[in-house]
Amino acid sequence: MSEVEVMTTKQQNILTEYERYLTLKKIKTLGQYISSVKEYFEYLDSIGGEYNSVTQMTGDEYRTYLFTADKSLSRPTINNKLNRVKSFYRFLLKKGYIGSNPFYRLENLKCCKNLPRNILNVGDMGRLLDDFSILTNDDIMLKSIVELLYGSGLRISEVVTLKLSDIDFDNGYICITESKNNDKRRRVVAGEVSLKTLKHYLKGKKINSADYLYPQKKEGSIKNQLNAKLKRECRRLNLKTVTSHSFRHSIATHILRAGVGIREVQEFLGHKKIASTEIYTRVVVEDLKNIIEKCHPRELELNDE
Questions:
Q1: Is 263 tagged catalytic?
Q2: Is the pTM value of this prediction over 0.70?
Q3: Is 20 among the residues known to form the active site?
């Protein structure tokens, strides 16, 4: 959909006020919020509606319109657009411009989680980690990071916020501060290889217990640096390209294949909901399906025919 080229004075005034409201709330994606409301205004114009006189049915019809009008829109994208319009109506209700929120009970489209991509098998992961080229001091840092990502199933956001005080070298544990809840911590197992590589990285460095292990010049810089390094390493080793998050996907799949229970994997990854972990069981089921198709006697008979 294109943005509204001509808006009514009423629409423009309320949109300007809404933009000021979002600015005060320091919404980072302000432009996307405004764009989504403009698109919604465009839809209302096409049906002869006004934003302050719609019903719950309007919300249902708009959701259907987004789903059918542009087939290139994914379900998560449609849900994001709906959520921004919902936010707009919460603003209108808060300011007293409407008596009730017609989008309050509107449900988002159900999204089926995609299977994790670029999961390396155990052999390829071993090659990547064992043959990780160390050419600079930064490579030593990146090597210690990938060992933590794979060894403890950590997120890159968790690794770059680790402090020296979070590492229990004696007992082999790492304390992680939940990114979404800064006052909650969880303890994860740290393998000997991970800790050995980390000690090598820390050798000669003067780091206090409260210092970050991996200080960044700006947010995301280490992640970008690591992903660039991984792209080069995978090309050199003739492996499919992986990113910093692929290590978490890979270790979850590897330990499930090895027979670890899903509840234990959930605990290992720090998932709040078991549904977040179940995505990896689908990968294992896909593996089994491929094996059955190739090896089951009845399937072999069919292939011979």
A1: no
A2: no
A3: no
